[in-house]
Amino acid sequence: MKNKKIRQAVILAGGFGKRLGQITKSLAKPMIKFNDKPFLYYLIEELKKNKIEKILILAGFKGKYIKNKLKKFKNTKVIIEKKPLGTLGSVITSSKHCEDRFLLINGDTLFNIIYLNKIIEYEKFKTFLFLTKNSNYKSNNLLNNIDIRSKKIYFTKTKKKMYAGISILSKENFKGFLKNKFYSFEKDYVPNLIKKNLLYGNYDESYFIDFGIKKNLVFLKQNFKKLTEKKCVFFDRDNTLILDKGYTYKSSDLIWNKGAIKAIKYLNKLNYLVIVVTNQSGIARGYYKEQDVLKFHNYMNKDLYKHGACINDFFYCPFYEKGEIKRYKKKSIDRKPNNGMILKSLKKWNINKKKSFFIGDSNTDELAAKKSQIKFLKFKKRNDLYKLVKRNIT
Hints:
Radius of gyration: 23 Å
Number of strands: 18
Mean pLDDT: 90
Helix content: 25-40%
Distance between the termini: 36 Å
Structural class: alpha/beta
């Protein structure tokens, strides 16, 4: 049976953070603030932006404080350990709250959140670890001495690759482990699956920082905004990504332009955000409703998922000053050639404009990109979008 799309993340937030000394004497490590916001807030917000609908926090030290502070987040549940159960024991004991397959994420590590683009491609694996380069971490941790061959993970005696703090787990692999018992993800779970030849992984050199030690914490506090900046490719929708049939909104009318799916997948692999910005005056004209646009965009991504690709976000402008629907009949800073939609996306996703691009087919697209100081690439009808992307973006 085909695996379902992963929609839940489980965050490990139960450690004492003893290596940070006085800093975590009265504060749980995941609640340390970066740019005046607890790290756990940042992590939850990023997951939700990436369509992770349910979040389970496994807390221990200062668990009641964490639970109280996270009441503001919908579909976020906090479970407090009665006693320390280890990085795996807490998951197994709380498994009744877990979906069949879910993301497991360390609550004290900053990883490239664009890893989530790649989850689509690897959802077919029951258990999957994301690996990163090991250049600064000691070798006394088993997960700091692993490597990968043909997607399968194995132990190595030299520092080559290491666990990046994010994985896909399946409850199916919990068989044989008891609840309310201490288990280590590193020492019990991983070796067990490697022995059975059931542990898969992918390697990416994107950044990874464990702020469980003072040196890394200081560095992260000084560079948090820069490290969490994302590069992005903005796309116009109609006549760029898809064929415009004239106010296209029906799923049956979806026709991708040549090379579009391949281009999106290529950008996903390069850790670019992919964001659509589109004028939808058909809403103001009364041709269709906002809900129809949302459904169509969901259908676009559903089709992309089949190819291991995704669009991270959609911004659309329903307003048009010559429209028929009173609610939408007005000028808007969001309507291209204005750049309101781009400005909103820059703020929402913390995008680095200098490392980003806008691809569109019209002068209004080009003007919106120019106003935003983002490099513009012109797409011409009947051209291959993948070739344009590959030629200009690496």
